[in-house]
Design brief:
By secondary structure, the protein is mostly beta strands. About 5% of the residues lie in helices and about 45% in strands.
């Protein structure tokens, strides 16, 4: 397992070792004994998304802020994270990374980020490990269409709830 830093403090890329034999493959992407990854798992879930599906950008405030490990099991995604830690050198900056299941990489996202993804293939499966429980009262979001970034040229499927989220600029003004 190799951990690579990014320009965003504590946001890391985890390259996962594959152990293969005639039966198939084993991929170990988390071990509590690894001192480089300080992470307590409170919730784990998968999403299965069709091409163009947008999930997020979401986050939680205060004591319910979540660190996450995001791992693409099948397919491919564009991962998006916005650093909302006011004392960070990368405050309000956007992290964008294409993640393919066949590359065996995960993203370790620290607390203080809004995050989301765009599915690039049908039946893309993503595993989410969260450090805190989901608490709807503390949830916030940022509209993906308000980001000043190049998005893939595919038809995006965005929920009504996510289309109604604040723009990044409005969110930053209010917080």
């Amino acid at each position: 397992m190799k951990i690579t830093s990014t320009k965003f403090e504590n946001l890391k890329i985890l390259s996962i070792n594959n152990f293969s034999d005639s039966r198939g493959t084993l991929k170990k992407f988390y071990n509590m004994k690894n001192k480089k990854i300080k992470f307590n798992i409170c919730e784990a879930y998968t999403t299965i998304s069709n091409k163009g599906s947008v999930r997020g950008l979401h986050g939680q405030h205060g004591k319910y802020s979540q660190a996450k490990i995001i791992y693409c099991i099948k397919g491919a995604i564009i991962y998006l994270g916005i650093d909302l830690r006011k004392k960070s050198k990368t405050y309000a900056k956007i992290y964008k990374k294409k993640i393919k299941a066949k590359e065996s990489r995960a993203i370790i996202v620290p607390k203080g980020f809004a995050h989301g993804l765009i599915s690039l293939q049908n039946e893309t499966i993503v595993l989410n490990l969260n450090s805190a429980f989901y608490e709807p009262k503390y949830e916030f979001g940022i509209n993906i269409n308000s980001l000043n970034i190049k998005l893939p040229k595919i038809r995006l499927k965005i929920t009504k709830k996510d289309r109604s989220l604040l723009s990044l600029n409005d969110f930053l003004r209010k917080n």
